[in-house]
Each structure stands twice: as C-alpha cells, then as structure tokens.
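Re: the request from the purification team.
They wanted to know what the chain is likely to look like in 3D before they choose a buffer screen. I agreed to run a prediction and write the result into the notebook, where they can find it.
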Amino acid sequence: MKIIDGHVHIGKWSSVFLDYETSVKDAVSVMKSAGIDSAVALPCDTFENGKLLNEIIKHSEEFRFYFACWINPDDTALDDFISEYGSYIKALKIHPSFQRRNVLDKSYEKYFDFAELKNIPVIVHCGRWKEIAGYNFPLELAGKRKKLNVILAHLGGDQPSICTSCAQDIRNKGLKNVFLGTESVREFYFVNEVVKTAGADKVIFGSDYNLGLPQMYIPIVESLKISNEEKQLIFSGNISKLLNIG
C-alpha cells in the first residue's frame, strides 16, 4: 500500500522541544525504513525555509519530499522567498501557537491568497490552546474561503474529545475543503470515530516526524475498521489530490 507521510519536520527546534535537531539525511533513512514512498517536509521553528528547500532538492534522487513553507508573518525575508521559489512550494504551514496569533489574523491573508492562486493546501497546527490554536478558527477560515483547502493538524486538537468534536463540526457545517491530519495521534481507538464521522476521504496520514516516528502511527491507520480502499485514501490518496501529484 502506497504511503505518503503528510507531516514531516526537518531541522532544529527551539528550546520548546529541547533544541532537538535532525537532518534531511536522517529523515530519508527513517522514511525509507518505515516504507514511506514520499513525504511533505516542513521546517522546524528555527529552521529557515530556504535551507530546508535546498537540502531536500540536494537529496531529491534519494527520496521525494514535497516542500511546505512555514509562514511566519514577522519574517521580513518571507515574501521575497515565496516570490522567488513559489514554484517549489506544495503547501503552506501555519503554527498559531508559535506565532502567538490565530489563523484569522489579517497578517496571514496574503498567504491565503497565494495558496488559492497556486491551488495548494494550508496545514494549520491545532492544539489545546483554544484561544490561539483552537480548530474553530481554521474552520471559520475554510467557511469564508471555499477555494482554500485547509488541513487541520493533529485531527483538530490532539485530544480525543477535541478531535471527535472537530469531526462532528466539519460534518455539520458541510465543509468540503477541510481535512484532518493524523500526526501525533496516540489514542488509536478514537480515530475510528473521527473517520466514521468525517469520512475516510477527509483524513490524511501524518507522523509529525521528527517528534514522532512513522512506525508508531502506521499501525493506527492499519487497525481502522474500514475497507482497504478507504485506508489507501488516508495513506496517500487524499494528500495526492491536494498536492496535485500522481
């Protein structure tokens, strides 16, 4: 079964994650050993977009990474980088908790315009800090921008009650442009409820490497009480469509 890891971090984290660092070479080794066919590569919070892009291009013959640009509106070099390397960008990543602003902040608007223009998805970190990283903000964004595909990381909140509530809200609101990433999900049993509620066509496999390992999370999808065809959607089909890849 083809597997695309939809959420892989490469580089160095700040003290929030104890300055942990991994290289593209490290990531290639881990992905290959887990049987991953390709992956969406996102920088860590201290790692420059340009540095990551250069590194994954350098290793492109060893493994296929799709570059996701980290959006920090305070980065004065970001707009020039996007202007020059926009053709390499397959997704945008927004981390409200690190940037200390929710996804509806006006500073993000021009980047959403870019994502709509290029028809690429926006990956939004969702967590338990509801005032900043609550899933309600990206759901509101998706409701306002119907042409923007939004992937809610951690199934909308990385906690069973939050994730199941998020799936219900997506279904109730009829948001066809919202998807849920499985990265860092630990309690495998509630993922069945999320898939049952939102649908397998709304869920995307992600490991959150380098904070997690694909081998830890692949069995969660394999254990779901759904058909193999639906598992294939989660493992690679859904993200392939969003990235416009074969």
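For the purification team: The chain has one domain: 4-243.
Please add any questions underneath this entry.
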